[in-house]
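ok so i was messing around last nite and threw this chain in just to see what happens. nothing serious, just curious
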Amino acid sequence: MDAVTVLYYAIVCGVLSLAVARLARAWLRLTVGIAVGVLAASALPPLRALLGL
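result:
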């Protein structure tokens, strides 16, 4: 994995950890985690192309 990918997912996971702390139910945390993972994975290729990386 290259540095851009690691940094990108580190930022996404960091923001997710801040948001998930407020959610009490395990199923809701899991759902949010899955949704953010899918969104992050689908957003990375266009972001890389936009930045020219």
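not much to say yet. The mean pLDDT is 80.
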